[in-house]
Task: structure prediction
Amino acid sequence: MTAPTLTAKDFTSDQEVRWCPGCGDYAILKAVTKTLAGLGASREDTVFVSGIGCASRFPYYVSTYGFHTIHGRAPAIATGVKLANPDLDVWVVMGDGDGLSIGGNHTLHVLRRNVDLQLLLFNNEIYGLTKGQASPTSRLGTRSPSTPRGSVDAPLIPGAFALGAGARFFARAVDIQQPQLVEVLTRAHQHRGAALVEIFQNCVVFNDGAFHEFTERRVIPDNQIYVEHGKPLRFGANRTHGLRIRPGTLSLEVVTPGEEGVTDDDVLVHNEKDQALATLLVRMAPPVFPMAIGVIFDSPAPTYEHVVLDQVTEELQAGKADLDALLAGGRTWTVL
Amino acid sequence: MTMSAAGSEAVRERQDSVVIRFAGDSGDGMQLTGSQFTVESALAGSDLSTFPDYPAEIRAPTGSTFGVSAFQIHFGSIDVLTAGDDLDVLIAMNPAALITNLRDVRIGGLVLVDSAVFTPRNLEKAGYSANPLEDGTLVQYRSLVLDMTTLTQQAVASCDLTSKEALRCRNMWALGLMLWMYDRDRSATIEWLGKKFAKIPKIADANIAALNAGHAYGETVELPGGLTGYAVGRADLPPGTYRTVSGTESLAWGLVAGLRAAGLDRLMFGSYPITPASPLLHVLAGLRRYGVVTFQAEDEIAAVCSAIGASYAGALGVTSSSGPGIALKGEAIGLAVSTELPLIVVNSQRAGPSTGLPTKTEQSDLFQAMYGRNGDAPLAVIATATPTDCFEVGIEAVRLATKYMTPVMVLTDGYLANAAEPWLLPDTDGIPEFPVTQRKDPEGFHPFVRDPETLARAWAVPGTPDLEHRIGGLEKSTSSGHISYDPENHQQMTNLRAGKIAGIAKDIPLQETALGEATGDLAVVGWGSTFGPIFKAVASAREKGLRVSHVHLRYINPFPQNLQELLAGFSKILVPEMNNGQLVSLLRSAFLFPAQGLSKVTGKPFKISELVAAIHAQLEDSA
Result:
């Protein structure tokens, strides 16, 4: 018997959504439910795990299983879920403070271990739920209640962090660019292993317009590059620009084929299995470079829980373990 | 009895019980030596109890006092419940071991030392200004000063060893002599050495040669001071099959037995290395065949969180640590209280605060277990009393966690984790089953629908159709499980969480005395690893006709239903604890009794004599 295909609406819970009007989270929620419908996911086998923060309310609004846990710890809880039942399809929702500050250690380790999870990092470069303090991704000089003269600590680049931790999948998307977001989420789901998706999410109250530099409709062509495996890394209104390795260096530069002796062949072709290229792409930012969006790196490796549980299965197949044999193992003696 | 050739041996003096401590550098192999003496003693039919006491440093500088590692064993034909108060025998492999351990030897006790290592340099490192072998330091003891170094070198001369390798066999020489002295066999040790050094046969041969040489020395050489061997009879143990077991092993096996009794397939153990709790991770990591999955997490918080995630997904989540790690787990344990998920948290307590004395035992985390979370966050607290008791406590922890959908804190300690004693193997068919039901029926379901009897909420596991729901650490409505900020609802939920834990009291055995009548002049109330010394001290006081009883608590939260009534039957209450007075505070606040505390926080267990003195002092006061 095949279960009836569910629609995006079927994945929406009956709970009243309590994000601020205009919050980017609404768009992400819509894209996620649409993705689940598109994947033919089942409600009972899908689990959303979150930490604490605005983004972490997410599980309440999806009609699957959900666990709203504690600040920063969602990846650790999700790891336990997968070790208990690897057949569950587990999505982790984190904010930038949640996943990169208080929970940075767990994000690091869940990536290097390669637990099969979709990790959605809602990056709004600010603490929203606690009313607007600078976060680990806030840009230098961010003025906030905790940094009245501007933040002085250098921001973390989530993609560079993830690749440095040994992530096997990293992608980016923008909250309101739904088709691309759905595509990226679908790819993250297809990837077996830890898949980190950084979603630029606009906080209308505390950090409105943080990403306007590359998300406003008129600047998208010049300030975003949507990367696709096997296709040239080109962008611009008429795809006039491209990326190439600056001769004699290990860095990228923006070029215009046809000008200054640059040809189409000079432009790099995106290879999502190339970690070195991914490392260059994630560090790009306007105004010098476009922001890379899409699947930047996807190079699967065996997942943690399968390797661990295969060991368990292997030993379980050796036969039903006898408790008495365990207790009487080692040296025994008999008193008459 | 292993007889020497032609019965040439002098008649052995009989002893009821003996306390031996092997002490040496942390690299001298004292733990292995003590462990092997334990095995041979157990096989010879002794009852016994051991106390490994080792430094926090893995390899402290050679010859230093802070690098001394010791292993104490108390064995005998009597009922042995403690590792012993005073030493009958001290084997000191160097001056540092002598200076740090001599004070524990009883007057007239035997002190065995290796004269070759009492060099000016080693004496200075140990802090001796004069050679204790010559200045009368040992005059009140029986000393056996042997050149063990040369004797060992001679024994292994044919084994083609470097001089360093040869010296490493000194411990086996000393063990051989002690096995002769107490008339123990050595075949189990020979077999063990063969296995341990199977890949380097010459090392195995050398160790066996040293062991045999030490034994032969006792048999053939007339020891100074007319020292002869001793005979220690078999203990009067109930019939059955025995093994020795440490608290760590029996707790691990108890958890596995509990998993089976609950009818669950998987135990997910999330842990992070910490002294003295790590051995539990090591033992469980070897039990995959029993459905155990172990996860060495990136930190203590991830360890407990992974266990909570596993319980949420339908497995039995267990985590373990020592005090500092439990502190880190506090917030997550609160989440398990709030979401009402089964969780077992094992605390192998050590001396605190902060890093404290990592390898020394204490029972000072009781308040932490009771109160170490934000908000009103009650959970069940149970404690282990002896190495073998850990098995039953492991099973009981599983029962309470799954039946009541609650975290259960299991308090054990560094002493119990490492100490070993003989164990009459239990009949596993006789372990009562307590099958767990996970909810399947969507009719009338919400995640906080409760069993009216136990107040436990339904355990509905992801993967179950039509029970999809969301839970979290925010307060939830009693009637729907949805988030609720309603003031009255929070009061109700707080009451429900407290009532659920309090209700466990109806489901645990009534408190009985461990020894003595249910009324009297004095109740000595203990919990945890103080069981052995308290029991022995109370027995001793009772032999002198004092009306004193021993009450030992396994269940601390909630207390057994009749505890107040039981304690009310005594004129006085004394609560010895290896902390600054924690259980005594709980008893006073719960029952308003004027209980008296007796505190010891030296990193070592109570001596029986200390407790006997305290009991007498209590009863003299009232006389």
